[in-house]
Every structure is written in C-alpha cells, then in structure tokens.
Amino acid sequence: MAGLKKRGSTYYLQWYEGGRQRRRSLETDAYQVAREKLRQFESAQHRGEAHPLPTKTPVGDVVEAFVAHMRAHRPERSWKRDLSCLRESFGEVCPALALTTQRARRCRDLRSPADRRRKLWPIGATHFEEITTVMVSDFLVSQVRVKGLAPKTANRYREVLCKLVNWAMKSGRVKMPMDRNPVASVDRYAERAPEIRYLTLPQIKDQLSVLSEKPTLHAMVATLIYGGLRREEVVWLREEDFVRATAKAPNGLLRVEAKTVDGQSWQPKTKRNRAVPVSRDLRQVLHDSVPPIAGDGWLFVSAEGKRWDPDNFSRALRDVNKAAGLPWTCLDFRHTFGSQLAQRGVSLYQIAALMGNSPEICRRHYAALVTEEMTAVVDFVP
Q1: Residue-by-residue pLDDT tens, the chain, 382 positions
Q2: Rg (CA), the chain
Q3: Domain C-terminal end among 134, 153, 185
Q4: Domains in the chain: how many in total?
Q5: Do residue 144 and residue 218 come from a single domain?
Q6: What is the pTM of this model?
Q7: 302 and 179 housed in the same domain
C-alpha cells in the first residue's frame, strides 16, 4: 500500500518495500498530479513491474549501452550511420559518440559561427527520462530550418531516436513516464516521391562502350546493370558465386550469399541470400572479361589483385565517367535493372525477389513504370 506525503510544497510518494519504508519525490506541488502518479505506481505494483516509478538514468549511460548493443547485433556500416544521428541529437555525451579522428575534430573546430553545418544545440535532457515529445520535435525543426535537412533525413533522425528509446525501455534500463515512448508521438515529415534515374537501352550501350578499355570495371558495371546487384554485393562476389551453367539456368547464376573470408564477415543488406539468373548479355560479358581463376578467389579484383574496396570502385568509375561526360552511378545502374524489367511487364514481386528488396520498396520505385502495361485491364467490357 502506498500513500502521499507533503513536505513543504512538494508531494512525496511513500510505501513499504521489504519491511523498509521508502520515499520518493514526485516533483510536483499539484495534488491532482500527485494522485495520478500514485495511481500509476499502485497499478505498476499490481502488475509486478520491477520499476514502478520512472527511473533517473544519465543520457550518456543509455546511449553508450545502445551503441554497444548495435555493434554486437548489426553490421559495421549499418550502426556507424546511426552514430552521427545520435551525436547530433545529444552531443558527445559518452565515449562512443566522441570524435576519434583528428581530421573530424579539426573540421568541427574550424567551422565559423555562421556556418549552417555548425552543431546546433542538442536535445537538452540530463537524464534519459526527461526526454519529451516537445524536445525531440523542436530539435528536428531546428535541424530542418537551420541546416536545410531533407524530410527523409529528418525522418531518419526520428527513426534512430525512436529505436533508442524503444530499446532502452524494452531492455529494462529505463522506465519512461507513463510507459510511453515520447519520440513515437513526433509527426513524420512528408517525403516527396522518389526520383528514380535509370539508363535507357542506348544509354546502357554508351556506358559499357566507355568502359571497353577497362575490362574489370566493364564487367562490374554490366553486373550492376544486368543483375541489379548492390555495389557491395558486386565487390564481395567470389569465384564460386558465379555458377556458369545449370539445367534451369543455362546462362548461369550469381549467388549473393553471406560469407566470411580471412576473418572478415559480410552479409547482404537484407540479411537474406538469393540467386540471380544471368542474362545472355551478362553471360557474354562475364565469360569475356572474367578469367577462370581470379586473384585471391574474388570474381572481380582490383589492380593490386585484391577485393575491391567499394569506395575505391566508385571513385574509379566516377573518374572514367567524368572524363566521358556521363553522370551515372552504381545506384542508377541498379535502378536500371528494376526499371527495365518493370517496363517489360515483369511483376513487382518477381523484381523484388531478384533485387533482394521488399515488394513495397519496389512498388514505390517502379510501380509508375508498369501503368502503361495495364491499359487493357481498365475496360469494363472486354
């Protein structure tokens, strides 16, 4: 049984636990508010919850533990993208969010006060339980207004913060007031329809012609265009991943599978293995450009005979395309695969399976391209 006790103008919650009297400030002088908090406390006790009252945990402790959790359960490139969002949101509140390189610290220190990229005030909460919907909303508004963040980026910040609070509550590290995630009540920003760039058939021919004197880049770009692979999926292809012919796939298959090579692990973005049939065009390129045995077992090797670094591959491709006046990137090549299939009437479900995406993502990207294939289905009378 619990009750209220008033000392001065502040109400306190008083109860017995293990035969000992406990007392906790409710930080309010309003009787109705104190009564509501007493009701929540008694309800939580009845449910057997370990922390019936909101806890008081430093923000840095929760964020540090969350980063450690991400590092243990997510690929490096994935959790590192969230670090900048957390750093912008809370500042360097823990060692995990500290800038570790001299270049990053120097860039931060050299920014002028008028620079719009300068760090804005982070969410002003000392304890994690003090985070409110208003704080998060005001933080996102300032980021959008001052830095000019796109709605998609602002929603990304919101998503990361929402995951942080959900994890903290689910893991039992904190008990938020009213057992509610304050970030979940922040409205999402309206995003514009995605602008999809893709190559037409003549543009594909021009792009591959530009790379004709660079066989490896030529084969890798052809794989992106005719196979719909992601950039990292291409650079992580091993010799055994290229099945040159099967009974059901006479042109061969490309297996996009998780693997560990020399102690370094990699897995597809969606954490699902898949196989992509090789088209006639791609088969000819791979047979002409890829030797039977490549360096270190990789299907595509750099000038050093090693696996391509994704950024180095993009840089080499960008240099060649810039000299030829072509604007295309690896993402454009991947979109070319989905767009060309959609225009040929291939179902969005099949495109999603081939590209390793969800049907919903393919619908957002490519549904507009299949409308002209539906002209016959809108007539009521056949």
Answers
A1: 688 888 888 888 888 877 788 787 877 888 888 888 888 777 777 766 655 566 788 999 999 999 999 999 887 878 888 998 998 899 888 899 887 766 656 655 655 545 444 444 688 888 898 899 999 999 999 889 888 889 999 999 999 999 999 999 998 888 888 788 999 999 999 988 778 899 999 999 999 999 999 999 999 999 999 999 999 999 999 989 998 777 778 888 999 999 999 888 898 988 899 999 999 889 888 877 665 545 578 999 888 888 999 999 999 999 999 999 999 999 999 999 999 998 888 888 999 999 998 888 888 888 777 665 556 666 666 5
A2: 28
A3: 185
A4: 3
A5: no
A6: 0.69
A7: no
| Domain presence at residue 211 | yes
Domain extent for 66: 59-185
Do 225 and 353 lie in one domain? The reply is: yes
Q: Which residue has the tokens 């750093």?
A: 87
- Residue 105 structure tokens: 């610290």
Say if residue 127 is in the same domain as residue 265. no
Do 180 and 328 lie in one domain? The reply is: no
Q: Are 361 and 352 in contact (CB under 8 A)?
A: yes
Beta bridge partners of residue 307, listed in sequence order:
301
Residue 376 lies in a domain: no
> How far apart, in whole angstroms, are the C-alpha atoms of residue 118 and residue 68?
27
Of 81, 98, 101, 80, nearest to 90 by C-alpha is 98
